[in-house]
Amino acid sequence: MILFGGTFDPIHRAHVRAALAVSRALGDAPVHLLPNAVPPHRAQPQASGAQRLAMVRQACAGYPQLVADDWELRERGGAPSFTLNTLKHFRRLIGRRPLVFVVGADSFAHLDRWHRWREYAALCHLAVVPRPGAAPAPLRVQRAFPRAGGRLLRARPAGRRLMLARPVLDVAATDIRETLRAHGDSPLLTPAVRAHIHRHGLYNQSAHRGDTADN
Ligand code: ATP
């Protein structure tokens, strides 16, 4: 099983491509995309958890290997939960089968800031998607997850790191939110997600329509 957690505010083409690339590298295994609840001390997503989940569902439609998973949003009544907690939950669910957690290279570079990150290696593999401009991860992080190929990841439950060879697309949700605010649309979203955003008036498109707010 493959898990891909994120804010997904909104989910964009790079997220979808990353999920598909990891799935392909691991024999078309299913990827669960988990929008997360965000702790109050961090920048809050602009869209609600329900809206972010709805967009993830739209983006996954048509890809049988992609699953929109509301576990992190449901967990503890929507209160933020540590990734460690998520990994333990899915580990309990699947027994000794391989569990893979997908991260962009920027997240991997800061893995040692995550709560009890050293415990991840006993629970999951990592699949790292290159991201232009991402700093290399500290050696202690790299060493905690020795690099391996897809075959080894599929043969063991946890503790290795698959590095995807190529970046998927150089895009960030932050830039997309800005484009939506300024222009009301972005080609870096899938058509279904664009339609959802328009239907629900998300990401302050009122600014684009000429309202006075936030100009
Ligand atoms: P923001 O700009 O709001 O920080 P984001 O586009 O980085 O958003 P997140 O939802 O925060 O998206 O990311 C979820 C996961 O997807 C993270 O592990 C992140 O590193 C990864 N990711 C996001 N965009 C890319 C990309 N273009 N290439 C590779 N990985 C990505």
TrEMBL record:
Q: Name one GO biological process term.
A: NAD+ biosynthetic process
Pfam families listed in its UniProt record: CTP_transf_like
Catalytic reactions of this protein: nicotinate beta-D-ribonucleotide + ATP + H(+) = deamido-NAD(+) + diphosphate
A GO term for molecular function:
nicotinate-nucleotide adenylyltransferase activity
**InterPro entries found in the cross-reference section:** Cyt_trans-like, NadD/NMNAT, Rossmann-like_a/b/a_fold
Record-annotated Cytidyltransferase-like domain positions: 3-177
Q: What is its EC number?
A: 2.7.7.18
Keyword line = ATP-binding, NAD, Nucleotide-binding, Nucleotidyltransferase, Pyridine nucleotide biosynthesis, Transferase
Cytoplasm as UniProt keyword: no
Which pathway does it serve?
A: Cofactor biosynthesis; NAD(+) biosynthesis; deamido-NAD(+) from nicotinate D-ribonucleotide: step 1/1
Domain of life assignment: Bacteria
Q: Which SUPFAM superfamilies match?
A: Nucleotidylyl transferase (SSF52374)
Q: Which NCBIfam families match?
A: nicotinate (nicotinamide) nucleotide adenylyltransferase, PRK00071.1-1
Record's family?
Belongs to the NadD family.
Protein role: Catalyzes the reversible adenylation of nicotinate mononucleotide (NaMN) to nicotinic acid adenine dinucleotide (NaAD).
* Entry-linked HAMAP family: NaMN_adenylyltr
Official protein name in the record: Probable nicotinate-nucleotide adenylyltransferase
In its UniProt entry, the species of origin is given as Alloalcanivorax marinus
